[in-house]
Amino acid sequence: MKKSFKTMGALALSLSIMGTGLAGAHASEKKQDDILNVAHRGASGYAPEHTITSYKMGEKLHGDYIEIDLQMTKDGKLIAMHDETLDRTTNGTGQVKDHTLAEIKTLDAGSWFNEKYPEKANPDYKGLQVPTLEEIFQTFGKNANYYIETKSPEVYPGMEQKLEDMVNEYHINKDKLLVQSFSSASLKKMQGIDPSLKLVQLLSYKTPAVLSDAEVQDIKKYAIGIGPNSNMIDKAYVQKAVQNGLQIHPYTVNEKAEMQKLIDWGVTGMFTNYPDLLNEVKKGK
Ligand code: G3P
Ligand code: CA
Fold first, then answer.
1. Share of the chain above pLDDT 70, in %
2. Does this UniProt record's set of keywords contain Transport (predicted)?
């Protein structure tokens, strides 16, 4: 059966949360199959990140979730972009917050990819636009699996309420929605606005990561899981999270050997620019 953003992610998440109750080799295979495959900025290893094209490619490659980073324009519109500045992923310059949506819509969000990755270049990428969150919801619908990050929330006061308003306006299925942030304050705002939302605390470590009991208990008050950078965690870290009932989705994992190692350690999902590679690993290829 074809997996898609619309079906597999929520199923995998609910199975992971509930536990499968299976035993032995079958349980192990099932567990591996349930690993959430999060298409990081879409299938951004193959297409310009945070474009509708990249998200569609993520779906085509059977990613379970569309990962979206949010920034906010001068006129208060939520757009999908990783950086606070336009420079890296468009032909514009300057801060997103200093430009209106109309201005940002004139920019080319695809040519940079062709220039940076000539071996993956595609003429169709030239002229791709920066999508709004609204356009993403209009394109993929209310039953897609969205994994949305409030980026730089201190720069964009009110972005949490705008996200909630957009989710409600498009009747997004909240069982299939995950909201992530490095900012615990932003996540707690989201929790205050809508306690039904599933939240994930992103974590960034510069040295080998340790998860303390106090940290686990604090995060569990508002989040269902954590998203640490994959290169600073170890088996003990992963198991501490899982044994305490937290989902754990490391980022950003693009090598098959690392994917398999993390699965063996017990992660419940991961962010990848190459959802096809993660699916190969999950199938034992
Ligand atoms: O959201 C998970 C991962 O994407 C966090 O890092 O910088 O790629 O948003 P970043
Ligand atoms: Ca992100």
1. 89
2. no
